[in-house]
Amino acid sequence: ISFNAIDSALSSLKNCQSLINSGMDVATQVALDLVESFNEEEDVNNMEKVMLEYATMDRQLNHYIKAFEETINQVKREKPENLPDLENLAQEKFLEMESKNSDSDLQMNEKYMYFKDQLKEMKKQYHGNDTIEQIDEDIAVTRSQMNFICPITQVTMKRPVRNKVCGHTYEEDAILEIIQTQKQKKKKVRCPKMGCSHVDVKGSDLVPDEALKRVIDSQNKQ
């Protein structure tokens, strides 16, 4: 049996995955734009619905790809005379996976989790003062600007990344350089934020903090 056609089809499906990921990135940016522009909450909620639709498509596509890959591996182990119907077998595996779907699956989608996280940070940056106690405006500005300073470089961040484990932010190039240097020495990296107890900062735990970057860029323009 030639599996070239099947491999080609799987490759096309994986390309669709990258398009879904791109769509989720765009939806995240649009949602952050809406918060920054103080649009109606309903508009932001609509973008969350879009994200969940994308997450649903991503889950379905993952199941389809996995079903076909498992089918191919199974068929390769069979004798020629015992070959099953590929399409039916893949469909059975796909439906079995889909039958175990739950809403919590979508909530755990990595892109959706990032969307929720950045939305929360954006709302905190732009609307936080509406919910906290009234304090002196100059003090509030000073506290806010302190969050713009990288604990490594001690200057305002240009490309902040946030550690998913401890929540602290750093300049991307600075923290990655430290991680790389310590990796060569076979040593772990302690979070550079003073007082933080996290002692194993990994590159995989860092995510771009788009919300903070927008606030910093906005302040720099003023």
UniProtKB/TrEMBL annotation:
Gene3D superfamilies the record matches: Zinc/RING finger domain, C3HC4 (zinc finger)
GO molecular function, one term: ligase activity
A single GO cellular-component term on record: Smc5-Smc6 complex
One Pfam family recorded for the sequence: zf-Nse
Annotated GO biological process: double-strand break repair via homologous recombination; protein sumoylation; protein ubiquitination
Membrane-crossing segments per the record: none
Pathway: Protein modification; protein sumoylation
Protein location: Nucleus
CDD domains registered for this protein in UniProt: SPL-RING_NSE2
Protein's UniProt keywords contain Iron: no
UniProt entry keywords in alphabetical sequence: Ligase, Metal-binding, Nucleus, Transferase, Ubl conjugation pathway, Zinc, Zinc-finger
Domain SP-RING-type: 135-221
InterPro entries assigned: Nse2(Mms21) (IPR026846), Ubox_domain (IPR003613), Znf_MIZ (IPR004181), Znf_RING/FYVE/PHD (IPR013083)
Family, per entry: Belongs to the NSE2 family.
Record-given protein name: E3 SUMO-protein ligase NSE2
Organism from which the protein derives: Grantiella picta
Source species taxonomy: Eukaryota, Metazoa, Chordata, Craniata, Vertebrata
